[in-house]
Write a structure and sequence with these properties.
The protein is of the alpha/beta class and 270 residues long. The protein is built from 11 helices and 10 strands.
């Protein structure tokens, strides 16, 4: 096996896998179960190992019947041959079609008065995007905005990292992020950039009302054009010890979780 593919994320960052495919394999217990429960998801084929069927057969057979599918028993080797290297499939995979695109313009009237949206500014690691989608559901975000270009497509790795949240989150893929943010501002959203270089922290910002948190990619951060659209920005305060030792940032998905938790706690006080 090539050393370049020791991490599934590296495999999917290959330009070949940035092209949208009409269908793909979702793998892992939680992602597969969530996909089978999602009536908006077109499911085509369900494969399980004997070990999985012994332990979870009742669950999978029940869900398969509801979706008009047969559960096919296969070996781990069979599954491995269908997935990217080192995929943690847990003995179950499901072939699915991509979810239908949701239009943010249509959803504008349905957002609550204190809604939180996330906007991802060219975050291209599918594991980070999946983890952020998972956090968005946990913290009650009403949508995740992802640019159509320079962002990962739906893949098994992204779905696995989202741990089932991909099936229930509102994902909006947009052609132009800056234009979408501008439109949201016209609809009373306050746009906040999570920026390591900002002088402000969450404690100094009013986060009441509908807001969009814009998150940049690791290393590059927010693009200049995106920063210009933001109404304000904030950073996550680091300890003196971390700063003195050159540890000045968190992984982007961790930073997103910390920010969302901070906003939720702040809103309890306001």
């Amino acid at each position: 096996m090539s050393a370049n593919y020791d991490n599934p994320a590296k495999y999917f960052n290959n330009p070949r896998y940035k092209k949208k495919s009409p269908d793909y394999w979702i793998y892992g217990l939680n992602p597969v179960i969530a996909a089978l429960k999602n009536k908006s998801r077109d499911c085509k084929k369900l494969l399980c190992t004997k070990e999985v069927l012994v332990k979870y057969g009742k669950i999978f057979h029940g869900l398969a019947i509801d979706r008009g599918l047969l559960v096919e028993e296969v070996t781990k080797k069979d599954i491995k041959s269908l997935l990217e290297p080192n995929s943690r499939h847990q003995g179950v995979i499901l072939k699915v079609e991509n979810l239908s695109n949701k239009q943010i313009e249509i959803s504008l009237k349905n957002f609550s008065k204190n809604s939180i949206l996330l906007a991802l500014d060219q975050i291209n690691d599918p594991q980070n995007v999946g983890a952020i989608i998972r956090s968005s559901v946990i913290f009650g975000c009403e949508g995740v905005i992802i640019p159509k270009k320079n962002s990962p497509q739906e893949t098994g790795l992204l779905a696995k990292s989202a741990a089932g949240a991909l099936e229930i989150a509102n994902i909006f893929r947009v052609p132009n992020l800056s234009r979408t943010l501008t439109k949201l501002k016209k609809n009373n959203f306050w746009v906040l950039g999570l920026d390591i270089n900002s002088k402000k922290t969450l404690s100094t910002i009013n986060t009441s009302g509908p807001i969009v948190i814009v998150i940049g990619s690791e290393g590059k951060g927010l693009r200049l054009l995106t920063k210009k659209v933001c109404d304000s920005s904030f950073t996550i305060e680091m300890s003196k010890l971390a700063i003195e030792n050159g540890i000045d940032s968190l992984n982007v998905s961790n930073a997103t979780s910390v920010a969302l938790y901070g906003i939720k706690e702040q809103r309890k006080i306001i």
